[in-house]
Amino acid sequence: MKCYLTSCFVGFIILDEDFNLMDYELFPKRDLIKRQIEVSSGNLTREEEAILKRNVKNCDSIIIETNLNISNYNNLKGASKFKFETPSDGGKFLRSNMGLILKETGFIDSEDDLNQVLHSVSLELTNYKLKEASKARDMFLIQAINAIDEIDEATGKLIERIREWHVLNFPELDKIKNNEKYVKLIAEYGDRNTIIENELLDEIKISIQSTGTEMEGPDLEVLQGFAGSVKSLQDTKKSLTDYVDQKMSEIAPNLSNLIGSSLGAKLIAHIGGIEKLALLPSSTIQIMGAEKALFRHKKTGERPPKHGLIYQHPEIRSARWWLKGKIARALAAKISIAVRKDVYSGELDPVLKENFEKKLESIKKEHPFPPRPSKSKEDKKKDKGKKKKKKREKYKKKVKDYY
């Protein structure tokens, strides 16, 4: 006799060939969430083992609907009778008639109770997963590095506004290219007369002969307050940067040592966690962040991207054009190793960075000049045509000479 083993959120159920309920093994009600986590993590539960052990003698074959690895069932008694099918006919019947079958098992009193039970179990499971996710150490790191990016974007626009505003009062001060120093001067000293009186011009080396208009009273107060707000954002960014450095040295010391805290944190934030990053191959890490270019390559056949986020590494950004791809490939390979060491050992290995530096030097020595441009198909056709023409002319000369 053939039977079906299938499961749902309350436990495991065996149906016969005609989809009648043969046997069941339900999870304890107080451990429903715990068992669901156990099943989703790929482990064989004691309830599934028990129901298989009870029914393997009565069935000629048991069709098991499961997402687990088949090797989990190899050591069970009567494993030769097991067949695996996902989804199976028994599973489809259970999902279509879940209220009726759970009522037969006694888990619910009536079919109308099913939706209420499903709702409460789903809520508990979601809350549990949220709590577990928030315990991950890299979640705080991801939030911090995303906050730094947003502050950078916001302060860039605000500083541009301050420069356009303050240039009416003191246009010569716009020669200062350092945004932090510029905002600090306006936030702390205000108008040009105060800056000149505090003898700050010698330090910044600009002329005191200003052509700007006077700014006094509420006009100056509003601008100074605006600059003070931007300055506080810049201070917040500094404290966040220190926090990211500290967290990266704790969570990913090898990655931080290899490419720096900021770039390492951006890679982790882009993929959503350090464990996910550790599972990626180096080829994916190399182009991570260049998804638009990758899909454009697949759609239109343009050249594929050679680097994504790791382009921010100074060795790639400052390299010559024919070395960028080679250095990106070498760096991505080292990043892949560094992240795996961080996740699975957590110990700093300085040899990793030394190996990358040696690889970098060898790439620069092996490729001191750009590669020669390869001939296109049209050029090759022209070359072939020229060779054929030369052969024909040579043959004609021989015939003339002969006669």
UniProtKB/TrEMBL annotation:
It comes from Methanobacterium bryantii. InterPro entries: Helix_hairpin_bin_sf, Nop56/Nop58, Nop5_56-rel_N, Nop5_N_sf, Nop_C, Nop_dom, Nop_dom_sf, NOSIC. GO terms for molecular function: ATP binding; snoRNA binding. This is ATP-binding protein. Belongs to the NOP5/NOP56 family. The keyword ATP-binding applies. Residues 362-403 are annotated as: Disordered. One of its GO terms (cellular component) is box C/D methylation guide snoRNP complex. Keywords: ATP-binding, Nucleotide-binding. Residues 251-365 form the Nop domain. Residues 383-403 have a biased composition (Basic residues). Pfam families: Nop (PF01798), Nop5_56-rel_N_Arc (PF21572). Residues 362-382 have a biased composition (Basic and acidic residues).
